[in-house]
TrEMBL record:
The keyword Metal-binding does not apply. Its main location: membrane. The lineage of its organism: Bacteria, Pseudomonadati, Pseudomonadota, Alphaproteobacteria, Rhodobacterales. This is histidine kinase. GO terms for molecular function: phosphorelay sensor kinase activity. Pfam families: 2CSK_N, HATPase_c, HisKA, SBP_bac_8.
């Protein structure tokens, strides 16, 4: 059996190996996808039918009301119609209140493991006589005794969702299987066509003459372009290597033949000499010729070595100062240099070092040749000065001598190989050629000139290593969304309230310029909608949560990466784009000169009765927000209609009492201090509490049934010029440091107390903590921003406000 046959049998098919690998990968991928598809199908089925449960639960919750006998529910037909979309599934339901028991439905349905009072829906699975999927959700209603929870449970069997799961999974796997088979066919065809260029390259190389080192022509695919370039690069290196070898062989052959011929001639003359003196003279000349031959051989080998090492580019960081000193220490041991004065000056170096990127062997050879040239051409009283100096950009190695030098017209020719300018001191003609090759291989420059000593000055100028590194860093450090030194904030919050936060953030980011522009809430919403790309701010801060949700819902916000440990409560964040950072309950401002705290009402029902009973005394002396100008006023008013059945009644009572309309809390506080108002409703609690300290005649009152809580929200709009720095500002607001500063240094209130209650304000909030009802960020706030609904709401409100006692 031949060796060729053996190699063929031991080989393998790259095409078959690739196809087998791809088949195994497809099978593994299908297994992984099947697991993912099963989980996705189950999640998709649950998500679809959970929406039916959620829609039915919300329909039931909306029909819960309070009567004299307690809470009741008018079960809507729509809830059953929604559940009937899963036509074959059974349904059970239950509506109950902890204080009043079961209102309707199947009693004693199982509760979830984490059952608690919450408006958030909880989905869970329970097996009764067959598997059921349940939703559990609650709602607070206002009763005569305060706020009561009412809960709804709706369960549905899982036949429809299981059928959808199976359908999604089986159809998905069937499609994936078919696509995989088709994909394998195309993979096989792609492998064959993709590997074809490799065969073309092989045929081209096999058909070539061994002396043909020209590059391979062609336009290879990108995937094998690197191989194509590598082969051409290798061919090019072979060509250069062969050219160097041929040149070296030719030079060696010529120069050695000439030198050996001269040596042979001297020896022949010595043999023919009859007299001892003449023979001794001929042998002396033969000895000198032998020395020149050895020197020539060494130079030829040194030249070949320098060219080879330069071609290999074996460069690494080194200290040229240490290399020069070590080389001189070696040279000074040689006898031929003992009669020459050699001095070194290397003190004028930045930092005391000369860092370059180079090859120590090549540089040492170049320095040896410069010194050899200086010794050879300098004469018996020669002086050689070696200087090493530099700047922040370059390092200069200079060798000067006291010899005859080289005329300016011959300096360029002197660096050519086998060229000697002075025939009296002619050597191999390779010394300066070697130095030039070393300089070129190091990206340096060789300069020849006249020395102050009278002879030749040869200077090699190397790039300094630090400069090379700095250039690389500058090229790699091109701007890639780097943080600018300026951010712009548009806000509806008084600048005085935000000033401590802005100052603290600016101190932590030196050189940062922060521009703050203040708006009314409605004007801010309009400004952001109308802002062009060049005018968009970096941050938008507003107390009107619904208007902020509207802006984010329009796709105007960046998604932020807020660390988990400082995430705000669930009600104060939405879509990782909008974040609340304060806790600000609605409060009642009142004139202590007109009422005492004990006289004030304790619930929304009592508030309506209180105003009606004191209508004559309070006519024109009650303040409230102008809902058309104040976004926070509109937010509080609409949320009151959702939370309390007393909202419409209160609006009518306020209309008969000729309520005055204001844009902001500060104006109502000033009017109350002047005695123009006896009370102001739904003012921002944080401002009211701090204004109460400034105006001693003003009191702040919270109701016992509920007090709406809003949060000032912030987002980073798309189009922001500095979104990274803006995100950092949001993180600062939500951090423990930022929340502590809100508590101690501003008129605002943090989301959660950073420390134990240590002030009258903190104590008051702690005592009323159970009555605070946060407004949840989310699409629900868009309801009253619907154009028709908003118009109808404001029309009804305007009709109720009989007279306008504006400030």
């Amino acid at each position: 059996m031949s060796a060729t046959t053996t190699r063929a049998r031991r080989g393998h098919s790259l095409q078959r190996r690739l196809l087998a690998s791809m088949t195994a990968a497809f099978v593994l991928l299908l297994l992984l996808i099947s697991v993912l598809l099963w989980n996705y199908s189950r999640a998709a089925a649950n998500r679809t039918y959970d929406l039916l449960l959620a829609g039915a639960a919300l329909s039931v919750l909306e029909r819960i009301s309070y009567t004299a006998a307690g809470p009741t529910v008018d079960l809507p037909q729509s809830a059953m119609d929604i559940l009937a979309l899963a036509a074959d599934d059974r349904v059970v339901y239950r509506v109950f209140s902890p204080g009043y028991g079961d209102l309707t439905g199947t009693p004693d349905l199982p509760l979830p493991a984490d059952a608690r009072a919450s408006v958030d829906p909880v989905f869970y699975d329970v097996r009764l006589d067959e598997p059921f999927r349940f939703i559990y959700q609650g709602r607070q209603i206002t009763s005569s005794s305060g706020r009561d929870w009412v809960f709804v449970q709706i369960g549905q069997t899982q036949g429809a969702r299981r059928a959808q799961l199976d359908t999604l999974f089986l159809y998905g796997m069937a499609g994936l299987g078919g696509v995989s088979l088709i994909g394998l066919v195309f993979v096989w065809l792609a492998i064959r066509s993709s590997l074809a260029p490799l065969g073309d390259i092989a045929h081209t190389l096999l058909a070539r003459n061994p002396r043909d080192l020209s590059p391979i022509e062609g336009d290879p695919p990108q995937e094998i372009a690197a191989l194509f370039r590598a082969i051409n690069s290798f061919i090019s290196q072979l060509g250069r290597s062969r050219a160097l070898t041929e040149s070296f062989i030719a030079d060696v052959a010529h120069q050695t033949r000439t030198s050996l011929s001269a040596l042979q001639g001297q020896l022949a003359l010595a043999v023919d000499a009859d007299e001892p003196e003449r023979m001794r003279g001929r042998l002396g000349k033969a000895e000198k010729q032998a020395e020149r031959t050895m020197h020539l051989t060494n130079q030829l080998l040194a030249n070949a070595m320098v060219i080879h090492r330069s071609d290999e580019a074996q460069l690494e960081p080194l200290d040229l100062r240490r290399l020069v000193r070590d080389t001189l220490a070696e040279l000074l041991r040689e006898r031929r240099l003992r009669a020459v004065t050699i001095s070194l000056e290397d003190e004028d170096l930045p930092g005391g070092t000369a860092p370059v990127r180079g090859d120590a062997i090549s540089i040492r050879e170049a320095l040896r040749n410069l010194i050899d040239n200086a010794v050879r051409h300098g004469g018996p009283e020669n002086t050689i000065l070696i200087e090493l100096d530099g700047t922040a950009e370059v390092v200069r190695l200079t060798v000067s001598d006291a010899g005859p030098g080289i005329p300016a017209a011959d300096r360029l020719r002197a660096t050519e190989r086998f060229t000697s300018i002075n025939s009296a001191t002619a050597g191999s003609g390779l010394g300066l050629a070697i130095v030039r090759s070393v300089a070129e291989g190091h990206g340096a420059r060789l300069d020849l000139g006249s020395a102050d000593l009278g002879g030749l000055r040869a200077r090699i100028v190397f790039p300094r290593l630090a400069t090379l590194l700095l250039a690389g860093l500058l090229l790699s450090a091109a701007p890639r969304g780097a943080m600018a030194d300026e951010i712009t904030i548009w806000a509806s919050t008084d600048q005085v309230a935000m000033a401590p936060l802005i100052s603290a953030f600016a101190e932590r980011h030196a050189g940062l310029d922060i521009t703050y522009r203040e708006f009314q809430t409605v004007d801010l919403h309009r400004a952001v909608l109308e802002a062009g790309a060049e005018d968009m701010p970096d941050l938008v801060i507003s107390s009107a949560m619904d208007l902020q949700v509207d802006l984010v819902n329009r796709g105007l916000a960046h998604r932020l990466r807020i660390p988990e440990m400082i995430q705000p409560p669930g009600w104060a964040k939405w879509r990782s784009e909008l974040f609340g950072f304060t806790f600000e309950p609605a409060a009642i401002l009142y004139d202590r000169r007109a009422f005492s705290a004990r006289e004030l009402p304790t619930s929304h029902r009592d508030l309506s009765s209180f105003i009606r009973d004191h209508e004559n005394d309070l006519r024109g002396k009650i303040g409230g927000y102008d809902l058309r100008r104040s976004g926070i006023g509109y937010l509080f008013a609409t949320q009151d209609t959702i939370q309390s059945v007393q909202a419409q009644r209160l609006t009518e009572v306020l209309g008969r009492a000729h309520m005055r309309r204001y844009c902001c809390t500060a104006d109502m506080a000033v009017a109350t201090q002047r005695g123009e108002l006896a009370m102001a409703l739904n003012v921002i609690g944080s401002y009211a509490l701090h204004l109460g300290k400034e105006f001693p005649d003003i009191g702040v009152h919270f109701l016992d049934d509920y007090n709406l809580v809003m949060s000032r929200t912030v987002f980073v709009p798309k189009g922001a010029r500095n979104p990274q720095r803006a995100e950092t500002f949001v993180i600062f607001l939500l951090s423990q440091e930022g929340q502590a500063l809100i508590e101690s240094g501003t008129a605002l209130i943090p989301l959660e107390p950073v420390s134990e209650p240590h002030s009258p304000i903190a104590g008051l909030l702690a005592s009323k903590s159970g009555s605070f009802l946060p407004i949840r960020l989310g699409p629900g706030l868009l309801t009253f921003l619907d154009e028709i609904k908003r118009r109808e709401f404001l029309r009804s409100w305007d009709a109720t406000m009989i007279d306008d006692y504006g400030p």
